[in-house]
Amino acid sequence: MSHSVGHEETHGGGTSEIKKVTIILSVLTIIELALGFWMIGMENKGLVLAIKGAIIILMLAKAFYIVGYFMHLKHEIKNLIMTIVVPLALFIWFIIAFLADGNSFRNLRNTYDPYFKEQSTIKVEKKEHGSHGAAAGAHADTTHKSEGAVENKH
Amino acid sequence: MATTTTATTTKLWGGGKSPFNVEYGKLMMWYFLMSDAFTFGAFLISYGTIRFSTNGWPDPNEVFKSFPFAPEGMNAPLVFVSIMTFILIISSVTMVLAVHAGHNMDKKGVVKNLIWTIIGGLAFLGCQAWEWTHLHHEGAWWGSNPFLNADGTASSTNFTNYFFTITGFHGFHVFSGVIINIVMLIMTLMDKFEQRGHYLMIEKAGLYWHFVDLVWVFVFTCFYLV
């Protein structure tokens, strides 16, 4: 009987842990944002991909700290952790399979659908947003709606 | 008599003791959140699949570059969404503090931190409402996408459809979280938890609120950063 229900002391953590995790989460977010700013206008595709990978790793680290410490899962008993985490492992397959499928669909369309391929090479002119003011808002709205309709007819 | 014998003969689930050492409500909240994680996961993976199957995609730094009350044409990518992210992180921290105060039977602390959490949630919803309104004025909505792909080619409406559906679904979760927290606040003020002798209900509301923050971590990364 190392654990007892509703007993605060066995749950671990405390204000110092909350402070620590808050700082960790803030720092991770700031690093993410710094990477995001660094990526703006970057031409090197390989580096962009690497930064995106780094951002996703930081995202998972943040998720770990939120679930582990704020949601207290790390201090629960192992059986409970397993019933939550093991089903979520399905996501590993889920993500790989679906992203690979999307990628393969793009390759197939680029190979066999000349229209799809062509559309991704024709540059279009940037539509005028007009001013962002309230007066122009309604007008801009209607024009964009009709443009959207034209696009759909293709 | 029967219970004592089962407790000694069965090791895993004798029925006499809670095998996960948490109360029923909290365990069920965990399972609900797990199912909700799959819902959000399905949304985000669907978004990823569509993005992977498309040649071009709008540049988030081009789309989300505005800021309330900013001068016209100001270019401030990521700034507004960083503020939204920090609002949600801070409100998550105040929620932990509320749960912590609940463990110590500190009613005042629970009330104070719950109020901060509710304010944080409302602030986040306000930010989101502003962002949606702004994008709508630019002509973005379900089924209409005024933005071009990053490489200057025509973009499909997939971008706006996914953006509004997923942030909308998340915003709805934030909204329900705020409602739940308001109910918790009222119950605390009415001394419901003092009468029960424990603040475990706050813990369950806290789990939900942290989950909302957790989902935002993913939504934020998938839509604004990557």
Structural class of chain B: mainly alpha
Helix content of chain A: over 70%
Q: How many domains, in number, for the residues of chain B?
A: 1
* Secondary-structure class of chain A: mainly alpha
Number of strands of chain B: 0
Report the C-alpha radius of gyration of chain A, rounded.
24 Å
CATH superfamily of chain B: Cytochrome c oxidase, subunit III, four-helix bundle
- Catalogue the unreliable spans of chain B: 1-10
Task: Describe this entry's structure for a reader.
The complex is a heterodimer of chains A (154) and B (226). Chain A is mainly α and 154 residues long. In chain A, 11% of the residues are buried. The radius of gyration of chain A is 24 Å and the shape is flat. Chain A is built from 6 helices and no strands. By secondary structure, chain B is mostly helical. Chain B has one domain: Four Helix Bundle (Hemerythrin (Met), subunit A), CATH 1.20.120. Chain B is elongated. The longest helix of chain B is centred in the last third of the chain and has 32 residues, at 158-189. Residues 1-10 of chain B have low confidence and may be disordered. Chain B has helices at 2-9, 24-52, 60-63, 79-103, 107-137, 158-189, 192-196, 200-225. The interface between A and B is large, with 75 and 72 residues.
Task: Sum this structure up briefly.
The complex is a heterodimer of chains A (154) and B (226). With 154 residues, chain A is an all-alpha fold. Chain A has 6 helices and no strands.
Name the descriptors:
heterodimer; A: 154 residues; mainly alpha; 0% strand; disordered N terminus; B: 226 residues; Four Helix Bundle (Hemerythrin (Met), subunit A); elongated
What is the topological layout?
The complex is a heterodimer of chains A (154) and B (226).
Chain A: H1 15-39, H2 45-70, H3 78-88, H4 90-112, H5 114-119, H6 134-153
Chain B: H1 2-9, H2 24-52, H3 60-63, H4 79-103, H5 107-137, H6 158-189, H7 192-196, H8 200-225
Helix pairs in contact in B: 2-6, 2-8, 4-5, 4-8, 5-6, 6-8
